[in-house]
Amino acid sequence: MFLLVLAPGEWIANRLLHGIKHAEETSTQALDSAASAVSTAEDAKEIAERAEGSLSDVRSILMERQEKEYESELDLYRGVSDDASRSTLITALRTATDAEILSENGVRVSVWETDLHYRFVLNGEDDLEVRLETDDCTVLSSHTWGKDDEPPTFYQTLVEAVRAAGEDLGVLLNDPTESVERLSKMLVDVANLRSQALMGHRSTLRRIIQKQDFGVEGGGWYFTERAILPERQPSYEIAIHRLNEMDWGDHLRGKGWYEADLALDFARKLYSDKPSVSAEAE
Q1: Domain extent for 2
Q2: Which long-range contacts (C-beta less than 8 Å, at least 24 apart) are formed by 119-122?
Q3: How confident is the model at residue 83 (pLDDT cuts 50, 70, 90)?
Q4: What is the pLDDT of residue 16?
Q5: DSSP summary character for residue 102
Q6: Is 222 within the bounds of a domain?
Q7: Tell me: the pLDDT tens digits for 112-153?
Q8: Distance from C-alpha of 216 to C-alpha of 202, rounded to nearest angstrom
Q9: Would the pTM count as exceeding 0.85?
């Protein structure tokens, strides 16, 4: 009988102990869950803050890359002055042509203090031709810069071409490298003006044939495949087919552009053999 009495007591005691232990475990789990919830919320906040910081970091990386790309392009154009090699000039001309800064028909640069102009033409990927032309694009001579020609050798060819055309200014004044330096500067200037679309010059400063100065500070004009535009305000265009529509000289002098008559005369010679382009075709 005694044994029968003890057995239920132990069982009850064990059940009580089990209940207490289960309650403690449940309480611990509840505390852990609460702590976990707090930790999760804190983690979410930290992740969100980190994500915001990450976007800022990404933005900085993207802007830095864009700036480096832009500076690399400028360095390429500046390099034409710093490195006289054939390959450097070809690379700069190819880059500017692909970017539609320059006309595919070549870019012209005047021969200092003469009525002659060098036209740099890319024929294929690795063939550079330099033509000596008059104002109206009459070709007086043509010269290919061969792969084995050193810069002094080729530039001497251009010196001789100017002499043959009767425009040699004399000792120390027949310098084709001066024209190439002005080409380099023009490429840098135009790349700067086109660097951001919101500046409004990308649509006008494209496919440039020549930039010509007319002896007035800031009085240069750009001549593109479709229009002429003043250096002072390169968003202002006069379409080629409108050059003879009105007295542009009076109109442009009214804007203070007193060299405009010279620019207009030059344009009419430059485009003299170019068919008129209608407004619809522009």
Answers
A1: 1-82
A2: 120/89, 120/93, 120/183, 122/90, 122/93, 122/94, 122/97
A3: very high
A4: 52
A5: B
A6: yes
A7: 999 999 999 999 888 999 999 999 999 999 999 999 999 999
A8: 25
A9: no
